[in-house]
């Protein structure tokens, strides 16, 4: 664990802690730093984890699109943990690893389809403060994704903002989960504008 967190890591103990550590090591190889930080407030940790598991089960939007949207938010906010974990998760879920590796540079990369670009543009527009989503952007995505898909995309981006902004605020950084991937994760474009 790094010493960069703004809230010190807590010792994860007890029966619930044992299960958390066992599950984390089985799924990730180690316990995420954020879990030890959030262990100070277990109801918050468990609620956010529960929401995250539910988000993963939603099925009205292509899994690659959800992954790219989440990672585009993480790149824009500047959450290295979210990018690292998101890429690792895309790899483990059998998603398009070559494309996922390029999300931090999606505007310059030639690997994305027009729809994938629109989804990442929407994710970034939602992430700006204030949001920059336009009627035209929404209407075009509604035509392509349907109402249920656009609602899911919007909720995924909202959840990504919640987690990425929280991780950055607490100083939670990358743990190198994406080293398991065949391709290195691209660095965000120089001068990449963060939201605000």
Word description of this protein:
The chain is mainly alpha-helical and 196 residues long. It has 2 domains: 9-57; 59-196, AhpD-like (Up-down Bundle). It contains 8 helices and no strands. It has helices at 14-28, 33-38, 42-57, 63-77, 80-92, 97-100, 114-127, 135-170. It is globular. 34% of the residues are buried. The mean pLDDT is 94.
Write the layout of secondary structure elements.
Layout: H1 14-28, H2 33-38, H3 42-57, H4 63-77, H5 80-92, H6 97-100, H7 114-127, H8 135-170
Short note summarizing the structure:
This protein is mainly alpha-helical and 196 residues long.
The average pLDDT is 94
Class by alpha and beta content: mainly alpha
Q: Tell me, briefly, the overall form.
A: globular
Over the alpha carbons, how many angstroms does the gyration radius reach?
A: 17 Å
What attributes does this structure have?
single chain; 196 residues; mainly alpha; AhpD-like; 2 domains; 8 helices
């Amino acid at each position: 664990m790094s010493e960069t967190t703004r809230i010190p890591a807590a010792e994860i103990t007890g029966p619930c802690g044992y299960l958390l550590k066992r599950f984390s090591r089985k799924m990730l190889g180690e316990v995420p730093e954020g879990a030890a930080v959030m262990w100070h407030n277990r109801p918050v940790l468990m609620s956010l984890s529960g929401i995250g598991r539910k988000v993963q089960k939603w099925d009205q939007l292509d899994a690659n699109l959800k992954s790219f949207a989440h990672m585009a938010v993480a790149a824009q906010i500047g959450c290295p943990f979210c990018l690292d974990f998101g890429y690792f998760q895309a790899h483990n879920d059998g998603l398009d690893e070559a494309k996922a590796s390029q999300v931090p540079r999606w505007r310059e990369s030639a690997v994305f389809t027009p729809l994938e670009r629109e989804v990442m543009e929407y994710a970034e527009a939602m992430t700006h403060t204030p949001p920059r989503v336009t009627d035209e952007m929404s209407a075009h995505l509604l035509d392509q994704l349907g109402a249920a898909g656009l609602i899911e995309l919007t909720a995924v981006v909202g959840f990504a903002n919640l987690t990425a902004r929280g991780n950055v605020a607490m100083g939670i950084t990358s743990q190198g989960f994406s080293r398991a991937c065949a391709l290195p994760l691209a660095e965000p474009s120089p001068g990449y504008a963060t939201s605000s």
